[in-house]
């Protein structure tokens, strides 16, 4: 975990960007010794957002199963998709 002050961010922006990108991890920015913000490379942010989206979908699917929604075996779904694509 990298922790830098807001003054360091202001004075050494390019260095912090390079460090964060090289290590692919967030830099925690503080002001007056208190945490204020997280500085994160865009690639890491997008990966995190994709992971959260997937987890949300998995949670919905799990809840649907618990609520008694019907489930289908993979081979049945694959066969149905093959039939649909054969018609096109």
Automatic annotation (TrEMBL):
<dbReference type="InterPro" id="IPR006442">
    <property type="entry name" value="Antitoxin_Phd/YefM"/>
</dbReference>
<comment type="function">
    <text>Antitoxin component of a type II toxin-antitoxin (TA) system.</text>
</comment>
<comment type="similarity">
    <text>Belongs to the phD/YefM antitoxin family.</text>
</comment>
<protein>
    <recommendedName>
        <fullName>Antitoxin</fullName>
    </recommendedName>
</protein>
<dbReference type="InterPro" id="IPR036165">
    <property type="entry name" value="YefM-like_sf"/>
</dbReference>
<dbReference type="Pfam" id="PF02604">
    <property type="entry name" value="PhdYeFM_antitox"/>
</dbReference>
